[in-house]
Amino acid sequence: MNPRRKKRLTIVSSILLGLAVVAGLVLYALSQNIDLFYTPKEILQGKEDTELRPVIGQRLRIGGLVVPGSVKRNEDSLKVSFKLADMRMPMVFNEDDPMVTVHYDGILPDLFREGQGIVANGILTSESIIDASEVLAKHDENYMPPELADAMKEGSADKAMHGKSAYNKG
Known about the structure:
By secondary structure, the chain is an alpha+beta fold. It folds into two domains: about 1-35; about 40-170, CATH 2.40.50.140. It has four helices and seven strands; from the N terminus they run αβαββββββαα. The protein has a five-stranded mixed barrel with strand order 2-4-5-7-6. The radius of gyration is 26 Å and the shape is elongated. It starts with a helix and ends in an 8-residue tail after the last helix.
């Protein structure tokens, strides 16, 4: 083989190998940051189609309803724990329903309450316990801010939207 061709082949091979290494590292980094969404039933029994269950130590996102009577707050800190069950209608909670316990240390959202839907990001620390780093409260599609709801009762939605009467130019 010609020395010039050999040099070109070496350079092209090095570039392709470098690109492959960079692509592999990027894909590995992205896979570490993926939060897969699970329901309490899927955490305990696996996904329906693949029966894939999260492993202990895996980062995940879980969604469900806060089980009434399960919220326990620590009086000395912001630590709170509660149980989550699958969302279904009618909202009836049985002891044999798949439930997962969520531990959270922080300020809960204003919409958080028992029977409310939430989404939590965290790490699975045991088969049915999640240490959450973030808790987000969900509201249904019928949600309306209280100010707008009050104004609509009074018949003046424009007043609520702009904070003043439509006829008041001040």
